[in-house]
């Protein structure tokens, strides 16, 4: 295999290195022994994939590859422990017989030679430039071979609570960016969604500020918050910021001019591609205005671009730590759909490669069918990578979602409780119920809820406006054990007739037209 794919370097045969730490010491030559020969590999970059045949003897390789986010191909059988099986990205059910190992090796060799032949077509010794990669990405757009590694949130290593100084140093490299252009007109709210009261008088803007304040206080760090405001929401946002003047949060509101307002970043109707919403375009526009150079000069290396519709987004040090430890340049938070029920939730606990066609940005119940993940449209980006691509003009407002432009890109599968969009009063009903509470700006799901999915809430047009919603719901009923709220009970009040339903009354499959029906 190594001879055919020219990985064998005979002249370095005298420089033999041991196998231990083959990933963390990936820049060192490697030694492989067989019965008749010794093979030495030249220094390499981090591998794109790890193939394991004798899985029962390679536990350390499993752990190391998983920690670095490297996909694993392995031969598996029924005797393999579950703790290692769930780390395998591409399991191959088989025993490790000589004949089968030879077959797999032969297939891998052919694949490597085919790819090498494609690279050789560009000319001997010629490396693909960023421009080549952009063109290659454009040509292959829509190809079924486009895949992205999805890592379950539960697999991420926690930050060390003991070393506060190290945590502070990492968090000081982060900046949070939030776009406030989404309006609440469809709910009868005259301002941006960021100012709608969602829980106990708190707004989505309050929640994100409280999160940053909590982190700054706990670790002694400085995480700035950049607010991108269109002209029609800027004054409202600036006025709302006055109440934060005493908090330890560095907030910078930016009023966007016409040169930063781009209406077409991606096609929102294109559901078969894993894409970012247009708030990513506004972020790039902000970076092009000179802000990127200022942030880099201040030592900032990572940006969290928050989805303006998601009120449960979290400024998560655990995710930031994973990006830094594994040199990841692009990360999108995704969450498994509920269209496939429990099987899909179980599958979401496995790390694996998924096609872009498996992702959708439309989270409506009817639209998620056939998809495995919802793109929450919250992005973690490496600012140095953005700078590199901006300087080479390879990155523009139409291709941030082109993952191939980045050296290392992944998706992180977060729990559904961390993706709670606010698009209508049905969403507001869910947020204000006893199903969720919040602490330090983060929504927390009620442990009494047994089902992994939230109940289905579909309020009628009479509840469409926030004013009507508040008038019709003096208190929000308990929904911890609710499966659905979809009009199984019909309440029809004649003109001039008031029907008041007292607390504690249980209604099921009933039609109420008169107070005597209650």
UniProtKB/TrEMBL annotation:
Disordered, as annotated region: 118-143
GO molecular function, one term: UTP:glucose-1-phosphate uridylyltransferase activity
GO cellular component, one term: ribosome
Alphabetical keyword list: Nucleotidyltransferase, Transferase
Reactions this protein catalyses: alpha-D-glucose 1-phosphate + UTP + H(+) = UDP-alpha-D-glucose + diphosphate
E.C. no: 2.7.7.9
Matches recorded under InterPro entries: Nucleotide-diphossugar_trans (IPR029044), Ribosomal_uS2 (IPR001865), Ribosomal_uS2_flav_dom_sf (IPR023591), UDPGP_fam (IPR002618), UDPGP_trans (IPR016267)
GO BP: translation; UDP-alpha-D-glucose metabolic process
Keyword match Transferase: yes
SUPFAM superfamilies cross-referenced by the UniProt entry: Nucleotide-diphospho-sugar transferases, Ribosomal protein S2
UniProt entry tagged with the keyword rRNA processing: no
Annotated PANTHER family: PTHR43511
Record family assignment: Belongs to the UDPGP type 1 family. Belongs to the universal ribosomal protein uS2 family.
Protein name: UTP--glucose-1-phosphate uridylyltransferase
Native organism: Gossypium tomentosum (Hawaiian cotton)
Source organism phylogeny: Eukaryota, Viridiplantae, Streptophyta, Embryophyta, Tracheophyta
């Amino acid at each position: 295999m190594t001879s055919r794919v020219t990985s064998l370097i005979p002249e370095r045969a005298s420089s033999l290195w041991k196998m231990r730490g083959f990933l963390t010491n990936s820049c060192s030559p490697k030694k492989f022994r067989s019965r008749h020969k010794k093979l030495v590999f030249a220094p390499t970059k981090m591998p794109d994939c790890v193939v394991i045949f004798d899985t029962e003897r390679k536990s350390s390789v499993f752990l190391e590859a998983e920690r670095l986010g490297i996909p694993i191909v392995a031969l598996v059988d029924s005797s393999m422990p579950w703790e290692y099986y769930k780390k395998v990205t591409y399991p191959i059910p088989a025993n490790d017989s000589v004949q089968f190992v030879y077959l797999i090796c032969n297939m891998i060799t052919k694949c490597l030679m085919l790819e090498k032949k494609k690279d050789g077509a560009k000319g001997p010794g010629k490396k693909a430039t960023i421009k080549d990669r952009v063109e290659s990405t454009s040509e292959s757009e829509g190809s079924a071979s486009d895949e992205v590694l999805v890592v379950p949130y539960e697999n991420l290593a926690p930050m060390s609570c003991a070393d506060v100084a190290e945590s502070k140093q990492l968090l000081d490299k982060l900046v949070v960016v939030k776009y406030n252009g989404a309006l609440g007109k469809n709910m009868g709210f005259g301002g941006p969604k960021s100012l709608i009261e969602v829980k106990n008088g708190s707004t989505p803007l309050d929640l994100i500020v409280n999160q940053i304040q909590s982190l700054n206080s706990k670790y002694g760090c400085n995480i700035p918050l950049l607010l991108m405001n269109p002209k029609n929401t800027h004054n409202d946002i600036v006025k709302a910021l006055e109440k934060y003047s005493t908090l330890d949060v560095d907030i910078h509101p930016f009023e966007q001019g016409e040169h930063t307002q781009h209406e077409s970043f991606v096609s929102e109707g294109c559901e078969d591609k894993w894409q970012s919403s247009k708030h990513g375009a506004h972020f790039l526009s902000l970076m092009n205005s000179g802000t990127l150079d200022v942030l880099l000069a201040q030592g900032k290396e990572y940006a969290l671009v928050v989805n303006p519709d998601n009120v449960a987004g979290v400024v998560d040090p655990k995710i930031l730590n994973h990006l830094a430890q594994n040199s990841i340049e692009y990360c999108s938070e995704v969450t498994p759909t509920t269209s496939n029920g429990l099987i899909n939730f179980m599958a979401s606990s496995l790390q694996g490669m998924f096609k872009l066609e498996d992702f959708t940005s439309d989270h409506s119940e009817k639209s998620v069918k056939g998809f495995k993940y919802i793109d929450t449209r919250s992005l973690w980006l490496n600012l140095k990578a953005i700078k590199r691509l901006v300087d080479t003009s390879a990155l523009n407002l139409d291709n941030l979602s082109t993952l191939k432009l980045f050296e290392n890109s992944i998706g992180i599968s977060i729990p559904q409780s961390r993706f709670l969009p606010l698009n209508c009063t049905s969403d507001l009903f869910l947020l204000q119920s006893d199903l969720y509470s919040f602490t330090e700006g983060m929504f927390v799901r009620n442990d009494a809820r047994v089902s992994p999915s939230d109940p289905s809430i579909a309020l009628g047009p009479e509840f469409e406006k926030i004013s009507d919603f508040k008038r019709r719901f003096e208190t929000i009923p308990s929904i911890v054990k609710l499966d659905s709220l979809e009009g199984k009970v019909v309440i029809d009040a004649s003109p001039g007739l008031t029907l008041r339903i007292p607390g504690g009354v249980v209604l099921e499959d009933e039609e109420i037209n008169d107070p005597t029906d209650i």
